[in-house]
What does this fold into?
Amino acid sequence: MRRLPVQDVMDMTTVDLIDGLRARDFSLLESAGCHRLRREMHIPGFLCRFTVNTAFALSGGKRKTLRSYNKVRQKLSKLLDKVTPAEINGNFPTDADRALVIGFNHPSLGEIGRFVGVCMRDYGRRKHLFPVNLPWYEALMPIVGRLEEIGIYITPIITPSAYEKIKAYASDEWLEQLDAVRTGFSNHYMKLCVKFAEEGGVIWVAPSATRRRTVFNSADECSMKVACMPQTMSLLATALVRAKVTECDFVPVGIQPPNGFKPGLNLFKTYRLSVGESIPMSEASDLLRERLPSGRGRRLDHEFLSRIAKQVSVLGSSDIIYPAS
It folds into this structure.
């Protein structure tokens, strides 16, 4: 892919950058000298592209009709049931009149494949928004159009862990610009969240903003002695309140990965998912206004993570609620 001079990136808007990535005109990672991060994505990116392309091929039709896309969703659902199996405790909300923000603990990449299976099976005709780390975003670009045809929309972000990796390769000039890019991606993501909520879509989000083996960062976070970080749910709820979105539920989901799991996709291994009690927008708005006893942090973040932790405990995984001291 073409490499951009840093000055060109400085002159581009966030939308221009995303459009260029979508069109595969250039690679930000290659431009910043992060060749290794792109190489690391070759195998997982190929597996994801292969699975989606196989579902399209098995559906047997090339016509762009609702019926043909339904066939693709069915095929993809069956493929994912085999490749990324999951046992689900409880039921995902199905009220088509309300938008959903589905938040989950994020111990690996494997749960994302299981969630896409849920999208295809339970929410086939709704639009779904996933924030995708920049290395993954670039790896998935060849199938972004097909993903959108079946209701999966992805937008790039630069997670804290990815940024730390980028720092090992990029020059100071590129790092300074990537700080601005990271902020632009985050702001764009929030705008998309509002748009999807207004249209009754489903927003999938990991409150940790990166992969983390535990629900809380620490025991002090869990006991409300310190604020939950990052304050993802508060930021998202604030954006929805400002946009006057009222028909929306925040749905906590606990994840128990298989024994001996790795940070990757963990193919053919069964994950356990447990759906918790939703927080309606009205309650989320009230919790957003409440401070923790320490005076720092919003109660919404703690309440949402606590409901995830409760579902993790239901699955028998109380040891991953916060790091052992």
About this structure: The mean pLDDT is 93. The first helix runs from residue 6 to 10.
